[in-house]
Amino acid sequence: MIVDLNVHWGHWPRGFWPWKTLGGLVKALKGCGITRALISSPESILYPDPVETDRILLTRIKPFPFLTPVATLNPAVLNFQKQIAGKDFVAFRLVPAFWDCSLKEKTVRKLLTLIQERKRLLLIQMRLEDERSQFYPLQVPAPKITDLLALAKNFPSVKMVVLNVYFDEAVQLARQPNVWVDLSFLERFQTLKSLLTVLPVEKVVFGSHAPFLYPEAALAKVMCARIPERVKGAILFRNSQRWLSIG
To answer: How many CB atoms lie within 10 A of CB 101?
Structure first.
């Protein structure tokens, strides 16, 4: 059993997916043993109103109960209140690198307050692409770690999973009690063995970042790691399953 918290589908203007269809991606995920995936729309990051693209996402995934939709919220678009109050999404995603406002603004605090009241899971996408691979004039810098830590401290009852973090970022963020990190962008010699010397296994979850990355890459980080099988199981599904009631 594997729960993947970091999957996408939709148009992305800066690259091509290895799979032509969503069905092809689902087949690849299942081929890796993934039994449940949280999926969001990359288009929702670029559209003025993410609600429209999230509706498209709901339609696209109907044939695939394997997939659980994640709504993308933008604090600059005030209809996020209706999104959070709705029943279509079990989790919500913020992508602050693509906003025209900071994590310190009042609308962000209002958004987090609503998520806190609804007791929903919050995913924070640190980046969509490795900055080293971005075309220079179109680089999108990641949000500041200090701003994310302040947000987590101000909303201690909101469960936050920060996706696509680098190794040193993961160590800083996951020391906060209400913050978890996924492993999709973690790279270090013996990555997980190194990470688990500074963080408890309970703070690490599985995320592939497919189709930006091949899901086999994330899976190999766990399966090839020199760590006990019970630790692998915690990362692959138990850490996620206990707060999502899925899988």
So the answer is: 13
CATH code of the domain in which 94 resides: 3.20.20.140
Q: How many domains does the chain have?
A: 1
In contact, 199 and 173? CB cutoff 8 Å: no
Average confidence score pLDDT of the chain? 91
Residue 217: both structure tokens together: 């890459």
Note down the domain range covering 180.
3-244
Nearest-angstrom CA–CA distance, 206 and 239: 9
Please determine, for residue 246, whether its predicted confidence score (pLDDT) is greater than 70. Answer: no
pLDDT class for 245, splitting at 50, 70, 90? low
Phi-psi label, residue 143: left if phi above 0, alpha if psi -120 to 50, beta otherwise: beta
Of 1, 12, 75, 55, the closest CA to residue 210 belongs to 12
Q: pLDDT tens-digit profile of 95-106?
A: 999 887 788 889
Instruction: Report the amino acid identity of residue 158.
Output: V
> What is the rounded distance in angstroms from the CA atom of residue 104 to the CA atom of residue 235?
31
Sheet holding 36-40, edge to edge: 3-8, 36-40, 67-73, 91-94, 121-125, 160-163, 179-182, 204-205
